[in-house]
Design a protein that fits this description.
Structural class of chain B: alpha+beta
Number of strands of chain B: 6
Radius of gyration of chain B: 14 Å
Strand order of the largest sheet of chain B: 4-5-2-1-3-6
Order of helices and strands of chain B: EEHEHEEHE
Mean pLDDT of chain A: 80
Number of domains of chain A: 2
Distance between the termini of chain A: 63 Å
Number of helices of chain A: 4
Low-confidence stretches of chain A: 1-25, 175-179
Largest interface: A-B, 39 and 34 residues
Strand order of the largest sheet of chain A: 5-6-7-8-9
Largest sheet of chain A: 5 strands, antiparallel
Strand content of chain A: 25-35%
Number of helices of chain B: 3
Shape of chain B: globular
Number of strands of chain A: 9
Distance between the termini of chain B: 36 Å
Helix content of chain B: 25-40%
Oligomer: heterodimer
Strand content of chain B: 15-25%
Shape of chain A: globular
Largest sheet of chain B: 6 strands, antiparallel
Number of domains of chain B: 1
Low-confidence stretches of chain B: none
Chain lengths: ~180, ~140
C-alpha cells in the first residue's frame, strides 16, 4: 500500500508555515502546530467580530428573544417554544447578512421559528423566517409589488434572490420593477 | 342567524376585527409586526375578536377576562374585508363571546417552507394595514 505524503503550505498574512506529513500514519509536529495556530487565529477573528459590530448586537437580541420564548405558550395563544436548533440557524443567518444592510427586527413566531423583519416604510416590508431546517421562507411587499419564496440556506451563504430582494426593499431609492 | 353574543354568524366585511397583542414579538414602538398575524400551527387558525376596540378599557377587559390573555397590552385593529382580500375567511364561534378564528390560510404539506412564505406574505400585508392601539 502506497503512503501518501502531502506538503501543506499556508500563508495567512500572519503566519507562514510549511510542513510535511504522512496522511496515512499520522501528522507531524509541524502540521499539529499549523492546525493549532490556524485554530487560534480563527478563534481570534471570530471573537473580534463577536465583540464589536452590529452583528454582535443582533445575536444578543436573538438570544434574549429566545430566552423569553423558551417555553410553550409564550404568547398566550399556544405558541411553540424556540429551540436551540432554530437559534443556531438564526445566528448563522445573522452572520451571512450583508454588512451594509440595516439591522432587522427579530421576533419569535408561534410555530417556533425566528422572524427577521425589515420595514423601512409603511409600504415596504421584507420578512424572513428561520427554522431548524435548511430552507428559508421569506416574503416582501414593495408598494403594489409583492412576492414570496423558500430557498436553501447552505454553507453560510444566503440565496442571491433573497439578498437582491432584501437590498431592493431596504434601499433608499424607490424601486421600479418590471412585472 | 345570531350567535349568543347577538352578533351575526357571518362576519360582515365592515366589521372591525381585533388581534390582541400580548408580547413584544407582536409590535414595536409604532406599528404591528408580521408575527402578530401568523396563525397558530396547532389549529392552522388565527384567533381574533369581533369588537371595535373602543372604548379601549372594554377591549382590555375582554382580552384579560373573556379571552384569558392576562398579558395583553393592546390590539391590532383591521376591518374584516382586509382579511378576505388576502383570501382568508372567518369562523365565528362565540367561544368566548365575540371570538372568531381567521381560517383558510395556505398550508402546503408538499412544501412546508413555501407554505410558510405564503402565510408570511399575508401576515406582512395585514401588519402593514393594522392600526395599533395600546391599553393605558
Amino acid at each position: 500500500m502506497s503512503q501518501s505524503i502531502y506538503m501543506p503550505i499556508v500563508a495567512t498574512g500572519f503566519i507562514s508555515l510549511g510542513g510535511c506529513a504522512s496522511a496515512q500514519t499520522g501528522v507531524s509536529d509541524e502540521a499539529v502546530m499549523l492546525h493549532d495556530n490556524f485554530a487560534r487565529l480563527y478563534a481570534h477573528q471570530e471573537g473580534a467580530e463577536s465583540l464589536f459590530g452590529k452583528k454582535s448586537q443582533l445575536i444578543s437580541d436573538l438570544r434574549e428573544i429566545a430566552a423569553e420564548c423558551a417555553n410553550d405558550d409564550w404568547d398566550g395563544y399556544g405558541a411553540e417554544a424556540i429551540n436551540d436548533a432554530v437559534v443556531f440557524r438564526a445566528e448563522a443567518v445573522i452572520r451571512a447578512l450583508p454588512e451594509a444592510l440595516p439591522n432587522p427586527e427579530i421576533s419569535a413566531e408561534p410555530d417556533g421559528d425566528i422572524s427577521f423583519d425589515w420595514t423601512p416604510s409603511r409600504t415596504r416590508t421584507f420578512t424572513l423566517s428561520v427554522n431548524a431546517g435548511t430552507r428559508l421562507a421569506y416574503a416582501w411587499i414593495d408598494g403594489a409589488n409583492r412576492g414570496n419564496a423558500a430557498e436553501a440556506f447552505e454553507r453560510g451563504t444566503l440565496p442571491k434572490r433573497l439578498v437582491n430582494e432584501l437590498q431592493q426593499i431596504t434601499s433608499d431609492v424607490p424601486a421600479f420593477r418590471s412585472s | 342567524m345570531s350567535l349568543p353574543s347577538g352578533l351575526p354568524e357571518v362576519v360582515a366585511n365592515d366589521e372591525p376585527i381585533l388581534r390582541f397583542l400580548t408580547n413584544r414579538n407582536h409590535y414595536n414602538t409604532s406599528a404591528v409586526k408580521p408575527p402578530a398575524f401568523t396563525p397558530n400551527p396547532k389549529d392552522g387558525c388565527l384567533s381574533v375578536a369581533r369588537h371595535n376596540a373602543e372604548p379601549i378599557d372594554a377591549s382590555e377587559r375582554m382580552a384579560r377576562e373573556d379571552f384569558n390573555l392576562p398579558k395583553a397590552v393592546g390590539v391590532a385593529r383591521l376591518p374584516a374585508k382586509a382579511f378576505r382580500k388576502e383570501g382568508l375567511d372567518f369562523r365565528a364561534d362565540d367561544t368566548p363571546p365575540r371570538h372568531a378564528d381567521v381560517i383558510d390560510w395556505p398550508w402546503r404539506e408538499d412544501d412546508p417552507e413555501y407554505g410558510k412564505s405564503e402565510r408570511k406574505l399575508i401576515a406582512a400585508a395585514l401588519a402593514q394595514q393594522a392600526e395599533r392601539l395600546m391599553f393605558r
